[in-house]
Design goal:
heterodimer; A: mainly alpha; Four Helix Bundle (Hemerythrin (Met), subunit A); 77% helix; B: mainly alpha; 84% helix; elongated
Chain lengths: 228, 229
């Protein structure tokens, strides 16, 4: 599955990037600066998606005691943290010309996204400080579930509170409020990022599983067989 | 069930009583966070310098941050001493449900670390020249806020109990979860100082506290079982 995800993801990203950056018409208000949307929106969406995946697999791991689910949660964390950082960084770069500020402390969406970054950090450092794998799995799963409260807060923050950040554009009543010439590259970017994320996640989970089972016979056979 | 088994209420009361008794045997544990709170609150006026109304504006935020940090200070030992002397195993094995025991320990923790902060905060607020009406709002929000912090911290303490780097890790885990409390707490007091509507913030803090109250004992109990297996 991994090569498929990688190839199709990269194809979609390159289509989205080329069309989005060169062919889509400039925004009537923001000019060319709006084009950062093609990185910002997919990254922000995936930062929440990765957290949701972690929360669901942490729940599965705790309830049905599936080791693979814990491996998925562990694998998704660093990727999710990177996407969160990317979303914050691109948003900040975008905010500078548009809002006139790099960062606005009073803004609920910015703050809740930043809190999510800290939650990712807390999760990863908790994992790193427990030596016993099964214990680390369960303890960090509890933490991730407690922190999951934050995801809906981020998602609805622009509707609940007044915010500098604009309201939802894509998923809303009455269809997307964006011109199709801009919309299609954006959708391609979102899908491409998602596939890329899936490929990364699979690679990480594979490494994680191999690392966990490093003392078992099938791993030894696999590694020795390949190297022989 | 045997007739002489204690009820849930009795079990809760026994845990609270035991922890309070233990805390009063070591008054340093109660006083240290309190002194820390007072010191941090003194540092800010010294750093800002005398005169001006900066202190009046910054006051609520400073008190809130100081309260947050000093309640973190005592969290680390919430389950640690019980782990060290083995009574944690007894508590987990006891016929009383573990979430109840966690709740009892958290209540005791709030009584010895949260409540003193709330009681001392008006004194500090007066030295910050905060208006008297604002102090009332601050006491209410701090009460709700420190309760939420104790409840959240109980989860974090249960997760990190017995870990070497537990103390720093605990802050990393608890602080992001505590940020909403800080935002709404400090904002509400600031709004009160500006004669604005405060009910929304107070309601939010109360709701957050209730939510933490209903989930935290169960999460802490699950975490304790994991850390102690």
């Amino acid at each position: 599955m991994m090569p498929w995800f990688t190839v199709s993801g990269l194809l979609l990203i390159s289509y989205g990037a080329v069309v989005g950056l060169f062919y889509a018409p400039p925004d009537y208000q923001q000019g060319d600066a709006f084009r950062i949307i093609y990185v910002h929106v997919p990254a922000a969406y995936l930062s929440m998606m990765a957290y949701s995946i972690m929360a669901v697999s942490a729940g599965i791991g705790l309830i049905w005691r599936m080791k693979l689910a814990h491996a998925v949660a562990a694998g998704a964390a660093p990727i999710g943290a990177w996407f969160t950082f990317l979303a914050l960084a691109t948003g900040s770069i975008w905010g500078r010309p548009m809002w006139g500020t790099w960062w606005e402390w009073g803004d609920p969406r910015l703050t809740s996204e930043l809190i999510m970054l800290f939650l990712y950090f807390g999760y990863m450092s908790l994992r790193a400080s427990i030596d016993e794998t099964s214990k680390a799995d369960k303890a960090s799963a509890v933490l991730i579930l407690v922190g999951a409260v934050n995801v809906p807060i981020i998602h609805f923050s622009v509707e609940w509170w007044s915010s500098l950040h604009q309201g939802p554009t894509l998923i809303r009543k009455g269809g997307p409020a964006i011109d199709t010439a801009m919309l299609y590259p954006l959708l391609a970017m979102i899908l491409g990022f998602t596939l890329f994320f899936a490929a990364l996640l699979l690679a990480r989970v594979r490494t994680e599983v191999l690392h966990r089972e490093r003392r078992s016979r099938w791993v030894r056979n696999l590694v020795l067989g390949e190297s022989a | 069930m045997a007739a002489d088994n204690p009820t849930l209420g009795q079990g809760l009361a026994a845990v609270v009583k035991r922890d309070l008794l233990l805390a009063f045997k070591r008054p340093g544990d109660i006083l240290n966070p309190l002194f820390f709170f007072a010191m941090v609150s003194t540092l800010f006026p010294l750093a800002i310098g005398p005169g001006g109304d900066q202190l009046q504006i910054l006051g609520p935020s400073v008190i809130w941050v100081a309260a947050l940090l000093s309640s973190l200070l005592s969290l680390h030992s919430l389950y640690l001493s019980d782990l060290e002397d083995g009574s944690l195993d007894q508590l987990i094995l006891s016929p009383q449900p573990l979430p109840l025991i966690c709740l009892g320990k958290t209540v005791a923790h709030w009584l010895v670390s949260g409540l003193p902060l709330v009681l001392v905060s008006p004194l500090i607020a007066i030295t910050y020249q905060m208006p008297v009406e604002t102090i009332g709002v601050m006491v209410v929000t701090l009460t709700l806020g420190t309760m939420s912090l104790s409840l959240l911290g109980s989860i974090g303490a249960a997760l990190t109990v017995g870990l070497n780097r537990g103390s720093a890790l605990l802050s990393m885990i608890v602080l992001p979860l505590a940020m909403p409390v800080l935002i709404f707490g400090a904002r509400t007091v600031a709004l009160a100082a500006a004669d604005d509507v405060v009910s929304a913030g107070v309601y939010f803090l109360a709701a957050y506290c209730m939510l933490a109250l209903s989930f935290s004992p169960f999460a802490a109990a699950a975490a304790l079982k994991i850390s102690n297996e």
